[in-house]
Write a structure and sequence with these properties.
heterodimer; A: globular; B: alpha+beta; Ubiquitin-like (UB roll)
Chain lengths: ~230, ~250
């Protein structure tokens, strides 16, 4: 006699929230972060206008709307929205990760991929690495804690101090390429999750995801690389 | 053909299984994969050994009963069911790994046979339309646009074999559920229960312990019927509509 336990009796705690709702949280928070990344990338390009313009841009961000708005209003709003987005994105990711682990406790002896891309396979660990990079990036460029420039440095000084160091530049390049792959799969996945994809649109969505990711990451990479090769000081 | 088979042997759910190696000579390339397993089982029975348990029924690719992981690919990765996979797809002297579907909602019953009743419960949760039985109504009384009927038919070709779950890195049953939601949701007869259906079926698949979909696409690539990823987008679209309309899953 064979007795098999029904899946129903082992009702997992993770099932309390609909798995598709988790994906929607992931998609919406991801879109918010992409919008921020676009603004961030364009803002970075001020570096090519010289140190003065770059530092002025940083000051403008802090004094935006003064005196009608208190100092750092826009930055604080962005920081709050981003923190909420990152936390929501992480909650959804870890929760789905845990759910997937529970769904296949015994793995295959042999398993071969049929279609999965490197980008889709590295979403989880790639995401963890990107998070570590964001923490480092904030300590480097925002607070200057791990930056090699002197105390009370201007934003442009910190830029030059970091990217004249080949190790720091290499780390930024690797993290940004990882971010690009994360976005490549993320944009396609968000389109699916929000129910906006279909067979006819699939190619367009994938092409758009690839080009947006490549453009965005290229825009981010030009500043550190220009400094690293000495074209920008 | 001479083959080396490595097959997952597991006496019952309570004991741990392991891969066992068998050598086969004189296999015809015209045999189906299941016929090849039949030859092995005949030999095992003659030798007084326990034959390898595997699921099968129609052996013509329409019932969805047979399904094993062959060399790490669901149904062998040839866009067909295991019963329609022929030995000519392999080379003389090949080593073939055969494993059951792996997912906690699909517990192994014995060897390669798994319990797929989780799929039945997902269907019970909403994969139906409520209509009075009786004489079939006149088909022309409910017009269906050609585009919709074609897409609904494509989704309806899902045979519920479970390859999508087996191939998915998350062990998600999303493609199966999405095929059913798409099939019924595109037809006029499926409209009254459209929102309840998607909410209840997704709730049930979560309760069964399937993983969440991350749109990797292994399912669609492994599906013997080629169910498209589009169905998943349709399910998500319906689910968002249902949640906006305030539909709650039945308890």
């Amino acid at each position: 006699m064979t007795v098999t336990t029904s899946g129903q009796r082992r009702t997992p705690k993770v099932a309390k929230t609909n798995s598709v709702v988790k994906k929607v949280v992931m998609a919406v928070s991801g879109i918010i972060m992409i919008l921020y990344l676009i603004a961030h990338m364009i803002g970075n390009l001020h570096a090519f206008q010289g140190a003065q313009a770059y530092n002025d841009y940083a000051t403008w961000l802090r004094t935006f709307g003064e005196p009608a708005l208190p100092k750092r209003t826009i930055l604080t709003v962005i920081e709050v929205v981003l923190t909420v987005s990152v936390l929501a994105h992480m909650w959804a990711a870890f929760s789905l990760w845990y759910q997937a682990k529970r769904a296949r406790p015994v793995g295959y002896v042999t398993k071969k991929a049929m279609a999965q891309s490197y980008a889709s396979r590295t979403m989880r660990w790639g995401g963890v690495i990107i998070l570590a990079f964001i923490v480092y990036h904030l300590l480097d460029m925002t607070t200057g804690t791990v930056n090699l420039a002197a105390d009370k440095s201007e934003p442009f000084d910190r830029l030059v101090a970091s990217f004249t160091n080949p190790w720091v530049t290499a780390f930024y390049v690797i993290a940004l390429v990882l971010l690009g792959m994360h976005l490549r799969h993320g944009i396609w996945s968000a389109t699916q999750t929000l129910g906006q994809s279909n067979r006819r649109r699939e190619r367009t969505v994938n092409a758009a995801a690839t080009s947006l990711s490549v453009l965005l990451i290229a825009g981010f990479l030009v500043v550190p690389l220009a400094i690293a090769i000495g074209a920008l000081r | 053909m001479r083959l080396t088979l490595r097959i997952w042997r597991q006496k019952d759910p309570s004991v741990k299984g392991t891969m066992v190696t068998y050598k086969l000579d004189d296999i015809s390339p015209d045999m189906s994969f299941l016929e090849m397993l039949d030859v092995l089982n005949e030999r095992l029975i003659m030798d007084g050994d326990d034959p390898v348990a595997f699921d099968h029924d129609c052996r013509e690719g329409i019932c969805g009963m047979c399904g094993v992981m062959i060399n790490g690919k669901a149904h062998g990765g040839e866009h067909t069911t295991t019963c329609q996979l022929h030995m000519r797809s392999f080379k003389d002297g090949d080593t073939i790994d055969v494993e059951p579907w792996r997912a906690s909602p699909f517990p192994v019953i014995k060897d390669l046979a798994v319990d797929r009743r989780a799929f039945d419960r997902i269907i019970q949760a909403g994969g139906y339309i409520s209509v009075p039985t009786g004489t079939a109504p006149e088909a022309h009384s409910t017009p269906v646009p050609k585009k919709d009927s074609d897409a609904a038919f494509d989704a309806a070709t899902c045979i519920g074999c479970g390859a999508c779950v087996a191939a998915c890195p998350n062990a998600s049953s999303m493609l199966f559920t999405a095929a059913k939601v798409t099939h019924l949701g595109l037809l006029p007869q499926g409209q009254p229960e459209r929102y309840d259906r998607v909410v209840n079926m997704v709730t049930q698949q979560d309760l069964e312990g399937f993983g969440g979909c991350t749109n990797i696409g292994e399912c669609s690539a492994s599906c013997p019927k080629g169910i498209s990823m589009e169905t998943i987008s349709r399910l998500n679209h319906d689910l968002l509509g249902a949640l906006r309309a305030g539909v709650k899953p039945k308890s």
